[in-house]
Amino acid sequence: MKKSKREKLKAAGWAIGSVQDFLGLSDAESALIELKLALSRTLRDRRQRCGMSQVELAKRLRSSQSRVAKMEAGDPSVSMDLLVSTLLVLGTSSTDLAKAIRSGEGSKGRHAAA
Amino acid sequence: MKKSKREKLKAAGWAIGSVQDFLGLSDAESALIELKLALSRTLRDRRQRCGMSQVELAKRLRSSQSRVAKMEAGDPSVSMDLLVSTLLVLGTSSTDLAKAIRSGEGSKGRHAAA
DNA sequence: TGACACTATGTCATATCTGACATATAGTGG
DNA sequence: CCACTATATGTCAGATATGACATAGTGTCA
Prior knowledge:
2 copies of one chain form a homodimer.
Chain A: H1 5-11, H2 27-49, H3 54-61, H4 65-73, H5 80-89, H6 94-103
Helix pairs in contact in A: 2-5, 2-6, 3-4
The structure holds a DNA duplex.
């Protein structure tokens, strides 16, 4: 797979705004990445609201602190399955999940909007 | 991982309604499965609306017909990443994606609601 | 009947993800 | 300074997903 492109993303230093096509990503590819980043942010937010440390969450997930850190960092090695199932473990409802997803709205259509 | 439980699901013959706890699945686990099933259904629906065959879609994805079939069948071997990125390739907006996710609403809270 | 298009299911080599571990960095309180 | 907690980053063996292939089932048309 060419999900290795996401490795480049990280390597490239990440720049400022959204995942624009400063790499050769297709619309679908970048949309997927932004989606996962939105989930990452939601995850961190939710964990902190719960007053949990990464270590505590990791224990709940039967995973490790480093993986939780990677989840929250939007590391390319983290799958959407892992992100979503973690959010679900944190008690996120489908409705909130849907909200998180819409929040990662691709900047399609609005071009150089300020 | 114990995603092997999902293999059992398939083996168990699938029964009637939703993925209830007729297996030892936790809430989060079954919610994830229902979520993926909702995405599967959305995918098939969208592909058919586009008037595409599985073969055509596979070609567009640079994948194979068998994998598309598995995606639509909710096969446990299919990741959420694959489902979502396929939907995105089919031009699904984040909004519609969110809708699909809400449609897989877990039957949490409403117990024996007629 | 055969030929065809579409879909389903099983298997497998390889690619990718995962948890675990080591280690590093940042902040806080002694 | 050290000790402690929280988070970040790199690596790796083992687990899982992936595309490809073979094959089987289904319906349609002649």
